[in-house]
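Appendix B, Record 12. Input sequence as logged:
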Amino acid sequence: KTRTKDKYRVVYSDIQRLELEKEFHYTKERKQVKKREELVQKEKDIVVHHHLQPLQMSTANGIGNKMISLD
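Logged structural output:
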């Protein structure tokens, strides 16, 4: 540890720093991939919801369940 003006600071070797940087960038990329997958899933959910919404409304109003008689 190295003493700075206010506090102690850890000094890493070049190899340790390189590994930390690689881990940081890898983690950043994984987070981006995860967010992208979540957005795609949300878009699919929205599309499904919009396709099902008219069906749900018609069955809630009783339109889908009634038979028309031609008397």
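The helical segments are 14-60.
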